[in-house]
Design brief:
Layout (H helix, E strand, L loop, with lengths): L7 E6 L4 E8 L3 E9 L1 H5 L6 H23 L8 E7 L3 H18 L3 E5 H12 L7 E6 L4 E8 L2 E7 L5 H11 L6 H9 L24 H16 L6 H27 L3 E5 L6 H13 L3 E3 L3 H4 L4 H12 L22
Parallel strand pairs: 1-4, 4-5, 6-9, 9-10
Antiparallel strand pairs: 1-2, 2-3, 6-7, 7-8
Helix pairs in contact: 2-3, 4-11, 5-6, 5-7, 6-8, 8-9
Length: 344
């Protein structure tokens, strides 16, 4: 058997609209990271169509895995374990990745590791920062998730709070849609906001009370919609850049405030940002400023590791395997999977 630092892990990700595969040596040496995106397919619908996503995954999954192996310069016989996202996500999309991973694990008689997608986002930071070690506070912000998580160890997590309704990324996409911006809306809002006045419109911030680490962006989304409708009824000119900037500021203020409070309460000095919205330039910049002002170490992944990818799944899978946390071939997709506190 190879040393643990030489073990090759194949990661597979298909939770939404990216079909991805990656090969990882040990815990942090990335050999390949292949992502086949469906954004052009779903853009004309203004968002992800689950049935179409599932069909595309079926077509793409094996070619993407083959490409990941080629880029890594290895063959399937070199792989020692397979890690796959089994939730949360779109059930049909998840099933494609899980089925492919189970088939490979069975055919090669190698371990199968079911990975929580939310945990995977956190572990993307280990691939970007070799020096990063637990404990730390993680802020996960994506299209499907907004959560503050205390990471005590590689397999020990505590959920401090999460969104009660819309995730931050979901709110970005919905606001972008009503403003007539193309999908995905998050990057479009970010670009447009750079041209606007963030103080032009006072949009609401929910759940601001101290010690509350839950999030809610549904009311903010409704406030933006109401503002746009009101302006249209008045036949007043709408400055979309100001709307985007003011909306984005409202989201970011809450994320930053709750992150700082959680760090202070837990006595932690390290903050990790993860998830697709981690690529938002304003969020990254504001968190960096806040971290410097409060003497906090701040980490976030490279842009390619912010969005859904299989490298983060392989990394999370590796650390699960080191703790003896494996899955059997009865592993199934769990679309509503929540964060679990697993102690090795």
């Amino acid at each position: 058997m190879p040393d643990s630092e030489d073990i090759l892990t194949l990661g597979v990700e298909s939770s939404c609209d990216e079909t991805a595969a990656a090969v990882l040596r040990g815990g942090r040496t990335l050999l390949s990271n292949v992502i086949s995106t469906q954004i052009p397919v779903h853009r004309k619908f203004g968002g992800v169509v689950p049935e179409i996503a599932s069909r595309r995954h079926i077509v793409n999954v094996m070619p993407v895995i083959d490409e990941a192996l080629r880029e890594a310069g290895v063959v399937l016989e070199d792989i020692r374990q397979v890690a796959v996202t089994y939730g949360p996500g779109l059930v049909g999309a998840l099933l494609v990745g899980v089925s492919a991973a189970k088939a490979l694990a069975f055919a090669r008689n190698i371990p199968l590791i079911g990975v929580n997608h939310l945990e995977g986002h956190i572990f993307a930071n280990f691939l970007s920062h070799e020096e990063l070690e637990p404990p730390f506070m993680a802020l996960v912000v994506s299209g499907g998730h907004t959560a503050l998580i205390r990471v005590q160890g590689y397999n020990h997590f505590t959920l401090m709070g999460q969104t009660r309704d819309d995730a931050a990324g979901e709110a970005f996409d919905k606001v972008a849609r009503v403003m007539g911006l193309p999908y995905p809306g998050g990057p479009e809002i970010d670009k447009l906001a750079a041209q606007g006045d963030a103080d032009a419109i006072d949009f609401p911030r929910a759940l601001r009370e101290k010690g509350n680490y839950e999030f809610s962006f549904s009311g903010l989304k409704s406030a933006v919609l109401n503002y746009l409708n009101e302006m249209k009824m008045k036949r007043a000119e709408i400055d979309k850049a100001n709307v985007a900037a003011s909306f984005q500021k409202a989201v970011i203020e809450v994320l930053v405030q709750k992150s700082l409070e959680a760090l202070s309460e837990e006595g932690m000095k390290t903050l990790v940002l993860a998830g697709g919205v981690a690529a938002n330039s304003a969020l990254e910049g504001r968190l960096r400023e806040a971290a410097e002002a409060h003497d906090i170490r701040f980490y976030y992944p490279s842009k390619i590791l912010c969005t859904d990818n299989a490298a983060m799944i392989a990394c999370r899978g590796y650390y699960q395997s080191q703790a003896g946390i494996f899955s059997d071939l009865s592993l199934n997709a769990v679309p509503g999977l929540s964060l679990t506190d697993v102690k090795a």
